[in-house]
Amino acid sequence: MKKIAIACDHAGFEYKEYLKNQLKDRYEIQDFGTNTPDSVDYPDFVHPAATSVENGENEMGILICGSGQGVQLSANKHQKIRCALCWMPELAELSRQHNNCNMIAIPARFIAKELALQIVEKFLETPFEGGRHEKRVEKIAFC
Q1: Is residue 76 in some structural domain?
Q2: How big is the CA angle at 54 (ends 58 and 12), to the nearest 5 degrees?
Q3: pLDDT for the residue numbered 21
Q4: Does 143 reside within a domain?
Q5: Would you please indicate which residues are annotated as catalytic (active-site) residues?
């Protein structure tokens, strides 16, 4: 069973709980919080989740905040993380096929929960194509 990290801020809390419930029978999910809808600082939850993907404890990660931007920016500070902000399934699919992204950022304030689930499922189920994309992905990490 694929191991997935999940984390959110207060704006993503409801979506995190929904996604966990929908995915729990197909994936092993490690929840990095937050665990309430009270206001929090998203990096406090994103960095531990991203670290778990970076070190192989989890294979992929799901991040949720209001716009998706904050969690995506925080995750992408990690050298081995490629986190894509996605608001439609086609973007999630391409982020996996072409960029081999290992984390996804969902904008909870801009899409319905049901669409968020479709996006996450597409992300988790789509393989990396490799080939011509492989050399490009290898050039992403700068240091």
Answers
A1: yes
A2: 65
A3: 98
A4: no
A5: 65, 98
